[in-house]
Amino acid sequence: MRAHIITYGCQMNEYDSHLVESQLVSLGADMVDSVDAADFVLINTCAVRGKPVDKVRSLLGDLRATKARRPLVVGMMGCLAQLEEGQQIARKFEVDVLLGPGSLLDIGKALESNERFWGLQFKDELHDHIPPPPQGRLQAHLTIMRGCDHHCTYCIVPTTRGPQVSRHPDAIMRELDMLLEAGVQEVTLLGQNVNSYGIDQGKRVPGIPSFAELLRMVGASGVKRIKFTTSHPMNFTEDVVLAMRDTPAVCDFIHLPVQSGSSRVLRRMAREYTREKYLEHIATIKKHLPNAVLFTDIIVGFPGETEEDFQETLSLYDEVGYDNAYMFIYSARPGTPSYKHFEDLPRELKTERLQRLIAKQKEWSIRKNSAYVGRDLEVLLRGDAHDPAFLEGHSRGNHPVVVPKAGGIDRPGIYTVRVEHATPHMLYGKLLDAEGRVLEPQPVAAPEAAALSSPLPML
Ligand code: 5AD
Ligand code: SF4
Hints:
binds 5'-deoxyadenosine; pyruvate-formate lyase- activating enzyme; binds iron/sulfur cluster; five-stranded mixed barrel; disordered C terminus; 3 domains
């Protein structure tokens, strides 16, 4: 079987796609990188907003047309698969295999079955399952928990991914050891809400440490860089910041989604914190980690959001001074409380607010990024940039970084980079040698007469 997986959504979905891919390979499948080359196409779906759902619908339309011309098995996994909405779509587009986020290990059973297979249960075996490490990669994701116990009124995730279940630290540490053996140098710990690791459905789980303790354990493993996502401000505690400060491998990078700067909107979102409480957390972070890079998520145009509420989001942005933000227009998702109880705001109003927020974000990102010009950063270069004369990667603060290859450095690794130029989205710099000298890239040689006989790339 030749299989191809298409992944939408978040880092958790990327992790799950890798998990299913490794199952497929162990069943003897060849992984191919296009629909044309595949006889099994699996889409890993996201249901958090309407747009990713529309993309899946249009892709499934194309696949149904392909299926009419040649044998093809079509599968759908992930968050949308778990919803009635997704199952309707699956019926309409003649999807053969449907796997919810808790049934991923049923992939083998699904492919053996001669008829349509729909797996929608949350199975405990998933938490102990350790996928083989990705090959030839310096960065990896590591899931420490699944599901979510919060009930933010806009969010479909508690429905798609079920209640929170923390993974046992033994399974996490075993998976980490395998990643390290495979050469991984940066690990991102994943959970819908990592701060409540070890407290499932309001109860501390015996034998599972707190997230702060887990960070210290992972830090002692020898891994060079640790990141984590996502934190919920409601469960945010100072001990996590202290563990970050005391554990050199943990990067000074915090993604703390605020969603809105207005306490009134936060209440309607059922976020369980106020603007003031959120700002207290930010003050705690800045006190212990003065160089922390701060990212957030913001939803604009939540039902009932007034101009004053939106102004509070803008002023909160200034007060925190975020390095960057993921900004979303509110999308009314069937099955969420806000879809049922609140009226959606007009599209133009939401779009206009998003534009104003993006302007604010750009202003801050360029200001924050420019402060790195002239400084040296530790950068994990994961491989060639779009132009193969350059390498691309990320700093410890998660800034995307691009450098020209130089001094014989042309392969992935962790290097020191002197930043020379900044945009709101990217830092550009040069590699340094072991003595801290800038490595100038080789000037591009004029082609020799003999070399001209070989085809030149199109300019
Ligand atoms: N509409 C818009 N954005 C949403 N998010 C979650 N649900 C919605 C929705 N219904 C955003 C939140 C969350 C991120 C993953 O997606 O900002 O943090
Ligand atoms: Fe990830 Fe949420 Fe989308 Fe599911 S719905 S894929 S958890 S972002």
